[in-house]
TrEMBL record:
Keyword Transcription regulation: yes
Protein name (record): AraC family transcriptional regulator
UniProt keyword list: DNA-binding, Transcription, Transcription regulation
Domain HTH araC/xylS-type: 174-273
Length: 275
């Protein structure tokens, strides 16, 4: 198939829509893109044939046929072919409500996934291309194109959800748990945890609730209390306040209240059981 690229004319009325397409490409032969400051729009790219890599958020992903990747605007990234021919279909977009839509779906700064329904994926991109390329009334073309883009985003989110089963959720959360185990003594925010797997903090809470029946910060505090118990038994001369600080609780009163909440006794009472 011959390469096709389209960049719709963007007027003030288009830019006032909740979401709109800024560019679309079909059977596009990738030569490599490096954007140190990211891109001004959001982008989904689908691999049709060949193979390439995506470098983003400190990670490197191999992109093969049937896979797609996404990134939000202003996120630094590089993608380039690893063999002679790498053909993709891509769509760039923006809009006044895009951030809210992506946040609601739980899609973070970047995402790589396998597409479950590849034929439908291609068809949806073709339909958007056709709508924006035919001589319809401008108002009709913009409204239809916006609706098709919204449905495309829903479709991509459905693909993402279809790829997740219970085991995959645990696997997906593994980097977050590893981060907690390594940096529990530091001041960790919910956003820090969400960034480990490229999702929003709201979606991370949903994943944790489904997998562990706890909020992420509650789970982190459980790790801290576990570490505190080890300190209490092994470090006899260390003060309670210092132990709390060593495991990430900067306020000793909060440390003691959380310890009692989880263990049913104060840190000192726990210590006396073993010393």
């Amino acid at each position: 198939m011959e390469k096709q690229v389209l960049f719709p004319m963007l007027t003030k009325d288009v830019e006032s829509l909740p979401c709109f397409v800024t560019g679309i490409g079909m059977y596009y032969e990738e030569n490599g893109v490096e954007r140190e400051k990211g891109y001004s729009d959001y982008q989904w790219t689908y691999c049709l044939e060949g193979e390439g890599i995506l470098k983003i958020n400190g990670e490197v992903y191999t992109i093969k046929p049937g896979m797609a990747f996404f990134f939000r605007k202003d996120i630094p990234h590089v993608y380039e072919p690893t063999i002679k021919t790498w053909k993709t279909a891509w769509i760039t977009f923006n809009g006044m409500q895009i951030e809210s839509i992506l946040d609601y779906m739980g899609i973070g700064n970047a995402l790589v996934l396998n597409i479950e329904w590849m034929t439908e994926m291609r068809q949806r991109i073709k339909e958007i291309f056709y709508t924006l390329n035919v001589p319809l009334d401008r108002y009709e073309r913009n409204i239809i194109g916006s609706g098709q883009l919204y449905n495309f985003l829903i479709f991509m989110d459905q693909n993402r959800r279809a790829c997740q089963n219970e085991n995959q959720i645990y696997e997906r959360l593994r980097p977050v748990i590893r981060y907690m185990d390594t940096y529990y003594a530091q001041d960790i925010t919910l956003e820090d945890l969400a960034n480990q797997i490229g999702v929003t903090k709201y979606y991370l809470c949903r994943l944790f609730k489904e997998a562990y029946e706890h909020k992420p910060i509650d789970y982190l505090n459980k790790i801290r209390i576990k570490k505190a118990k080890e300190y209490l038994v092994m470090q006899e001369q260390v003060k309670i306040k210092e132990i709390g600080e060593a495991v990430g609780f900067k306020d000793s009163s909060y440390f003691c209240s959380k310890f009692k909440e989880y263990e049913g006794c104060s840190p000192l009472e726990f210590k006396r059981k073993y010393i």
